[in-house]
Design a protein that fits this description.
Radius of gyration: 21 Å
Largest sheet: 8 strands, mixed
Pfam family, one: 2-Hacid_dh_C
Number of domains: 2
Shape: globular
GO molecular function: NAD binding; oxidoreductase activity, acting on the CH-OH group of donors, NAD or NADP as acceptor
Keywords: NAD, Oxidoreductase
Helix content: 25-40%
CATH superfamily of the largest domain: NAD(P)-binding Rossmann-like Domain
Oligomer: single chain
Organism: Streptomyces montanisoli
Protein name: D-2-hydroxyacid dehydrogenase
């Protein structure tokens, strides 16, 4: 601890986020970029990873010691779970609670856009072509939502409100879920894909989920089905997705996350038939930066007071295990914006 008695909070951010000003008087804040991160970690009690797409943390992490608590301004924590941090006593928390509803709304918008052919309407408007068409109804179609945490549950809930029949797939199967009844395990996915009209991936990136959507998975899907990924880019084998779109195995797809971000200008995904590309924005609303600050500051108050932190990540599982309410499922998985 510094002589002032204030905890030292290192904030990894190239630009000053709103949280810095709000910490004034409660902490000694070291706002640093990637170049100065290693020096800040040597004296920090807390690290706030505001620039959550950074890859600088493993190299900068000290051989001994380090912050006692690391918080990321994201739901996904795969970039934080390098061996020294995973094996340390450092607590890791995430920003669960900020992204669930916005991502669900974004997915619902994508489903409606593909069903109603809004890309085709915009294309014909630009060419001043008046061409009447018929479109699809989403009510009564079936969706498989992969990822049983708060994001996946919010997606399945909102799709259900649109009249879709949503099957939820989580790490482990369980019955008696208060909302969805049966929650399927990953082992059930292969059997669910052939009946799905929509497949939405909102799973965390773990050793178990990496590359889970590959050529074999796309081949199992109903011809003409649509695929959406709002989880993590490495959940999808992108070359296999391209093949599925080019051959018509898939009727369309939407990707908000990619193996390489930003997506290179020469990537064939930009021109893939029937593919909607968005730049990792599904969870970002106009208030999201202030919302992220609120989550951290609420936890910081708990940390200073010696109270248990919220959103503690199980560093072995790779997500936040959430204790169930009476009658609820005992554990759910955290989704990943």
């Amino acid at each position: 601890m510094p002589t002032t008695g204030l905890p030292v909070v290192a904030v990894l951010a190239e630009r000053e986020p709103p949280v810095v000003e709000r910490l004034a008087g409660a902490a000694r804040v070291l706002r640093v970029g990637e170049r100065d991160l290693a020096g800040a970690l040597a004296e920090a009690d807390v690290l706030l990873v505001w620039d959550f797409l950074t890859s600088a943390l493993p190299e900068a992490w000290p051989e001994r010691g380090g912050p006692r608590w690391v918080h990321t301004a994201s739901a996904g924590v795969d970039r934080l779970l390098f061996s020294p941090l995973r094996e340390s006593d450092t607590l890791v928390t995430n920003s669960r609670g900020v992204f669930e509803r916005p991502i669900a709304e974004y997915v619902a918008g994508l489903v409606l856009a593909m069903a109603k052919d809004l890309p085709g309407t915009l294309e014909r408007q630009r060419s001043r072509e008046w061409r009447h068409r018929v479109t699809e109804s989403v009510a009564g179609t079936r969706a498989v939502v992969v990822g049983g945490g708060p994001v996946g549950r919010a997606v399945a809930r909102l799709l259900g409100a649109l009249g879709l029949r949503a099957d939820l797939v989580s790490r482990t199967a369980r019955d008696g879920d208060p909302e969805f009844g049966r929650v399927h395990g990953f082992g059930d996915l292969a059997g669910l894909l052939p009946a799905a009209d929509w497949v939405v991936c909102a799973a965390p990136l773990t050793e178990q989920t990496a590359d889970m959507f590959d050529a074999a998975a796309f081949a199992r899907m109903k011809r003409g089905a649509r695929f959406v990924n709002v989880g993590r880019g490495p959940l999808v084998v992108e070359d296999d997705l391209l093949d599925a779109l080019r051959t018509g195995t898939l009727g369309g797809a939407a990707l908000d996350v990619f193996r390489q971000e930003p997506l290179p200008a020469d990537s064939p995904l930009w021109d893939a038939p029937g593919l909607l590309v968005s730049p990792h924005m599904s969870g970002d609303t106009r208030s999201w930066l202030d919302d992220l600050a609120d989550v951290f500051l609420g936890n910081f108050e708990r940390w200073v007071a010696g109270r248990p932190l919220l959103n503690i990540v199980d560093k072995e599982l790779g997500y936040v295990p959430v204790a169930g309410r009476p009658g609820a499922a005992p554990r759910t998985e955290e989704g990943t914006p």
